[in-house]
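Run tRNA (cytosine(34)-C(5))-methyltransferase through structure prediction, thanks.
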Amino acid sequence: MGKPKHLTNKQNPFAKKKRNNKAKSAEQPEPARREKPYESIVPENESFEAYYKHQQVCDESEWPLFMEHLRSSLPVTFRITGSKAQAKLLLKITKESFFAEYDRAVRELRKDEEGGHVEPPRSLEWYPNELAWQLELSRKDIRRSEPLFRLHNFLISETNSGNISRQEAVSMIPPLVLDVQPHHKVLDMCAAPGSKTAQLIESLHGSDGAKIPSGFVIANDVDNNRCYMLVHQAKRLSSPCFMVTNADSSTFPVLQISQPDGTIAPLKYDRILCDVPCSGDGTMRKNPDIWTKWSLNQANNLHGLQHRILKRGAELLAVGGKLVYSTCSLNPIENEAVLHRLLKQSEGALELSECANLLPSLKYRKGMTYWEPATKDLKYYKTFADVPENQRTVVRPDMFPPSAEEAIEKYHLDRALRILPHHQNTGGFFIALLEKKKSLPWEAAAAEEAAREEEKRKEQTAASSGPPSKKARYMRGFKEDPFVFFEQNEEVFDSIKRFYQLDEAFDAKNFLTRCRVGKKKNIYFCSPAVRDVVQLNEKRIKFINLGVKSFVRCDNRNMQCEFRLASEGLASVNGFIGKQRRVTVDPEDLIKLLSCTDPTKPPEISSLTEGTQENLKNFDSGCCILECQLGDLPMATVGWKGTLSLRAYVDQHDTVHLLRLLGGDLSKFEKNKFQDKLLAEEAADDPEENGATVERKEEADTEEKIRYPTDPDNRNTGCCYRNTKSVHGKPRNRSESLDLFSSQYDTMITRGLFASRHTIVPCRVAQSVARCTSVSMSDRLVHVQRRYASQERNVVKSPFGKVDIPRQNVTEYIFEGYEKYADKPAITCGASKRSYTYGMTYEMIKRMACGLLSQKGCAMRKTDVLGLLLPNIPEFVPALHGGLLAGLTVTFANPLYTPEEVCRQFENAGVTVIVTLPLLLPVAELFKAKVKQYKGTICIGGKHDFEKNIYGFEQFLMENHSSELPEIDCDATAILPYSSGTTGLPKGVELTHYNLVANLAQGSHPQISKYYQPEYANRKETILTIPPYFHIYGLNGILHSVLKSKNHVISIPRIVLVL
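Sure, done. The structure for tRNA (cytosine(34)-C(5))-methyltransferase is below.
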């Protein structure tokens, strides 16, 4: 039986409106790309100024200064973190090494400006121990100014090592107000991106002792992708007392925890941070697009959500606990109105506490006690009775202020802090501290209801013939690997405990892995409290991350233990490791170990000081802890003692940090990108320097001899073949790998496999079947350099003369000057006639790049690899160059490969996002099931399906992804094409932007390509492309060459032979 006539879709007004809109959009297609470039945002918004003037957010006399600061760039601020002794030493180094030359560097930067006054670096007076600093420069000033390159390098390096946190000044206040102690149970309800979370973790470990805190921090966010930002942010701090969860904050579940007497009870938190989603108009200084988007509707719409989150936080707070409510908004509807609404409902259970005394010398304005809600067209209302009927769903009764007397004497709204931009040259912020005096009026009833539900669930579980169990909670986002905790009698634990002499008090159950079957590769450590929370609540909430990597499998037949220490987890397990695996080294020896960057030549023990040599006598080989006392600061790092050598296992950022503390030479780690660019330009003018043109030798030796080519910056860019596995997958030994590599190197050079039409071009060939297991790339490069250093160069001279190779990324090089041809067709599908102009193509490329980097999109990072599984279609170009413009590496596979072949290749390349067609989606799904860090599939011709983590290509490009595109290093890897596997498995070839540009520049010589001859300057042709774009010849030799010459490409997705 069908629906009644009045319920059919044809009569549904909403469905009818949707059909009409769809028909209208079909009749009026969206305009092509903008003809003019985007203009700078003008920091003006009449509604914004009118609204806040009416609300009197500041005195009338302060208004010009308030607006002047809002329109200026935000200064750089940072905090020094770490233990007290280490922070004190780093602060001293910062003042002596960087602040001392700050005045000169800034004067040089502003030499063209009038006045010349330079504000010195200023410590934030309200932050303890001079550990927070403000520089009166924007991030853009520091990033793009050569005089400040050392300061820029310092900030980046120390941030990556976790010893500095680059954080906005006002964002540091909420964690300070919470006053977190090591025993506190802390919840950050809306934690991403994580700067405040990191500060909470630092406070938890603030006792500066080796003892692991009994408390913990739970960082939660509703967005699954943003949760991984939290993981990245907190990873620098290496805390075993930290968990990341993925849940809706407004309905955050009540978790369970074990009590000292062994009973299970609901988890109540001592400290809660509610930094809720807001309209963000206090961040206009760093997010100028808010000027164009600001609307009062945003605040009105968010009021309800903010109240629900705050209310849930108050319910989860323990009696006597403290909660901070904060926003980066100036609007009282999002601030005082939300507080008043909850305080009124709590009937005295919550109290707004004074917090200004915790921040001496902080300039602020007291919380507002009167405001007037308004509609988006700025019609203000003093009472709800004045609101017209049609506006009562927008302006709600709870948005209105209390009486003047109640606002101060009953609700104490004046105790909140309002920080305005002109107070101390910061962003705008709102902070309020709530203390829970007693249980909320509705908590008792809610607890009883929860207890009944729990009892009912237990009865259903116990009854075998009872009704089916309740459906499991829906877990959004990616499926996480399991958290598998050790049992007391875990097999691998015995060898670890024996070799490292772990303390008897250490509980094996605090170790965990992320796999249930197979060999344990990484072992993580967490505190007992974290383990208890996870084991009791895995079915109640989705845990994203916890624990610190402490041990890594390192199979070696000469090792007594098959696991070595991981440097990031050393601080957590250091206190449990016995003296047998500790060795004291002198500071000068530690500098020598850290300064060694050649893994093939670790310092020999005989070259160290006598004291260190004495400490290493009768010391067993293998992983160890290197200890060093630097004044009052004890230092420890992971090391490896060989038969005759000693080395430090530290990543580059920590290496730089430790050397900086020890006073070592950092010159080899300093990178002046401005000087590198200048040298590259000079080298491009001198063929003798860059080796781009090679002269023929008059009397060549009978045996051809090759010298290893180097680039102008003395970085290796020669041919290298990286394959350390045999055909059967067994690792070769070191000498066998080197011999194979050297012979293949000879073969490739003498056969001219990497020589273009008239120049020998240096290029790099990547690892083939697997990651390097025995000899690193740098080992091979050094070996080849030595082998050919004494041999003469084989010299070949081009008959066409010199070719200038620009230092550009390949996308900029190909589409340079595209504006002139913006309306000309760039690429057309020969099957469907689908066509894009050069203007449309470049706009799609930029949108693709922003989407790949955006947190709303794929949230890819610089180290990620984009995989293309596509035939020759027009969308291949924006997919490829969108990845390249985002600074990613792009690889591609033959779409006719079997699913297993595609998965093997993409897994080998490290692909995290795939771009493909609906027909090939099953292959992408199969690959997704095989890898852990997969971030999504972009389907050309498909639609969004977030449950399967699929993005429709068209929708993906149309969404407003706001991302800052990175500066691209020309020597960075651009593409990773694979061979066809004729002689074994396919092998990956690593090609840089410079390699691709060099090849195109040579092919653009007028005597090689007619399209660069004068008579062809204005003649554009249509060129059919048949070779596949996933092949390097079809890509760079044809597609890129045609696009560079601004001709018209016809792509053929499929060829059918008709006999």
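Residues 169-370+401-441 form a domain with the Rossmann fold fold (CATH 3.40.50.150).
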